[in-house]
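Morning!

This is the sequence you dropped in the shared folder:
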Amino acid sequence: MKYTLSFLEDLIALFYPNTCIICAENLLKEEECICTLCLYKVPKTDCFKHQENSVSKLFWGRIQLQNAVALYHFKKEGSVQKLIQELKYRGRKRTGVFLGKQLGYALKESNYFSDVDYIIPIPLHPKKEKLRGYNQSKYIAKGVHEILGIEVNSRLLTRTENTDSQTRKKRFSRWENMVNSFALKRSNKLKNTHLLLIDDVVTTGATLEACAQKLLEIEGVKVSIATIAVA
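The structure's back. Tokens below.
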């Protein structure tokens, strides 16, 4: 049976090769989404080694966070942009899980996330999630969960306003667009916990700031942020 499955997998790969998202070369059996060479070349940050880093500084004077990190540097037309586009706009859900796992490995090696109690993916408005078919942050959170074993709570935070796209907005406009866009549900059991907010990319931080502000309304809660990339 094992050999039959292996033969079938090889036959499928012959006609429908599994290729690297970045370089489009065929992947080896042990590779997933990205080939080993491209994964090695993806520009990583050093956020996980220092509490004062490029991501945490985005939120200084704006909101009180425990930690804020991003795994990769996002550059226009770069490899990370390809990954995010595949995840958000081309339906590659498994890319989200794969990237979440990479984020999970980095969080596991860091000294600042060992006491996290729950993982909270940034919610999409129901209409937008229905249109896209899924919430990419939930798949990233799933990947993080697979590495850290921490429970994902995707019901706590809901999006109440179907806001305009943030892509072309400046910092204040982004914040104005997001403020009061989120609500809490069933938050009593989360008193005095450490919550980890998960998103794909942080640019100005307006969405994450609005979510964190809402979470900080819970008594005694601590909030940290982790994203796949920082622009």
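Headline: The longest helix spans residues 93-109.

More detail when I'm at my desk.
O.
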